[in-house]
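[audit] Reproducing an earlier prediction to check determinism. Same input, same settings, fresh worker. If the tokens differ from the archived copy the diff job will pick it up downstream; this log only records the rerun itself.
[audit] input (73 residues):
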Amino acid sequence: MADIAVLTIRDVAELLKVDAKTVYRLARGRRLPGFKVAGAWRFKNADIDQWIEKQKEAVGQPTTAQQRVGRKQ
């Protein structure tokens, strides 16, 4: 089985530079991809990375893939 990085609310809050309450509120509102294990929120690192890319697209910022293509031109 592949090694899957699983993050806690605190890990995600630190990654996103926001308060843990903000992460909890986003997860509870299903606006941030997560799942519960024994009542505690957990997040796959890859899901958070994808979520960040979608947020960048929503505000018109180039995604990582678009930045790579732009550098080649």
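[audit] rerun output stored. Observation attached for the diff report: The radius of gyration is 14 Å.
[audit] end
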